Amino acid sequence: MSMQLSPAIQELIHALRLLPGVGAKTAQRMTFQLLERQREGAMRLAHALTTAVERVGHCEQCRTLTESSICTICANPKRRDSGLLCVVETPADVMAIEQTGQYQGCYFVLMGHLSPLDGIGPEDIGLDVLAQRLHQDGLHEIILATNPTVEGEATAHYIADLARSRGIKTSRIAHGVPVGGELEFVDQATLGHAFSGRKLID
Amino acid sequence: MSMQLSPAIQELIHALRLLPGVGAKTAQRMTFQLLERQREGAMRLAHALTTAVERVGHCEQCRTLTESSICTICANPKRRDSGLLCVVETPADVMAIEQTGQYQGCYFVLMGHLSPLDGIGPEDIGLDVLAQRLHQDGLHEIILATNPTVEGEATAHYIADLARSRGIKTSRIAHGVPVGGELEFVDQATLGHAFSGRKLID
Fold first, then answer.
1. Do B4 and A76 meet the contact criterion of CB atoms below 8 Å apart?
2. Is residue A34 less than 8 Å (CB to CB) from chain B?
């Protein structure tokens, strides 16, 4: 970075690099665009950042990001009465599932996954809170929707054991060939899942 | 976007989309990462945005972005005494040229290019200021480094006419095959420039 740039410009470039996927060149382009043409947008972004950091916390029941003490999904009686609890890793997973319109139950958001090597144990992902929730009346199925990665699978197994010990039905979302995908381009592991998880056609 | 998201989260996603190259998915990923893992970073970015918008203006002499009334390059006597003035479109162009370490003169930053269809005329890109500067003692060469686009070339021609009327030597940076590039992948226009601008080998 040239030493000719003003400190305030340099600091903005550095701060933008904190965003995921933003490197030195992109941060510089963003900085110049904001200062040359989008000063109101820059102020709006600054305000949105401050407001979100100040107001957004975690839902007391499902741990997702929300401005209220309890998120809109947990606060919905129809969803609570469904008796379904879907366990996911992140709030983005909740959004992805909500967009399908297929699921009408509640969520539990781990905000991560078990990763002993990084020192992330059961309590760091709220499994003590989840364990208490398994005593809840009317809960009849836990749907495990953690990612199909090594850590996601290990986390799913851990929670399945927990639920089994309380006698609660537990399921894992299906893995297989993506809709619209071509077999030729699907990886071995996925194709293996597609075969082992095959369904009889009536 | 799901209606389940808190207003503060939605507003942050919208505000991040103002950044160049950031679409809906990326803005959402940035938002969740900031709120889940980088709250200090988010506050630092908010502060950097506010500070930059408040402090950064334009250099009175060359129009580049700076916190001072006159930028460090214009304030440098050695550069002023060089008698060279390089005309570029943006502050990013200044940075790119500075990084070569090859140029020791001053700059004039148009902050755009002539574009009659968009209503951008000579005064919008500071050519009235530039015209006054051509009277400056000791100025002996204008180097035109606007982009090799239709608008950039038109702008270069306009400024060349202005400089010619004042009897000041004017040059255009060389266009040709990029160093390290392969002829086979170079476009026709560039290859045409490379031939018409060929140099005799002594």
1. no
2. yes
Question: Rounded to whole angstroms, how far apart are CA atoms B163 and B148?
Answer: 19
Reply yes or no on whether the pLDDT at B104 is more than 80.
yes
What does the alpha-carbon distance between residue A94 and residue B1 come to, in Å, rounded to a whole number? 12
Map out the domains of chain B with their CATH numbers: 7-54 (1.10.8.420), 81-172 (3.40.1360.10)
What is the ipTM for the molecules in this complex?
0.79
**For helices B24-37 and B7-16, what crossing angle results, to 10°?**
120
Q: List the single residue in A18, A45, A94 with the smallest CB-CB distance to B18.
A: A45
Give me the half-sphere count of Cα atoms (radius 13 Å) on the Cβ side of residue A68. Answer: 12
- Cβ contacts below 8 Å, chain A against chain B, sum to 187
Quick one: CA torsion of B97, B103, B106, B107, rounded to 10 degrees?
Answer: -20
> Structure tokens of A176?
């297989």
For A189, the enclosing helix (H) or strand (E) is: helix A188-196
Tokens of B82: 């060089």
Which residue matches tokens 């002594």?
A: B202
Structure tokens at A141: 């199925």
CA-CA distance, B200 to B198, in Å (whole number)? 7
Model confidence pLDDT, tens digit, residues A6-19:
899 999 999 999 99
CA atoms within 13 A on the CB side of A201: 0
The rounded distance, in Å, linking the Cα atoms of A5 and A115 is 42
Identify all chain B residues contacting A6, using CB atoms and an 8 Å cutoff: 55-56, 65-68
Q: Which of B174, B121, B35 is nearest to A56 (CA)?
A: B35
Between strands B65-66 and B57-58, the pairing is antiparallel
3-state SS assignment for residue A127? helix
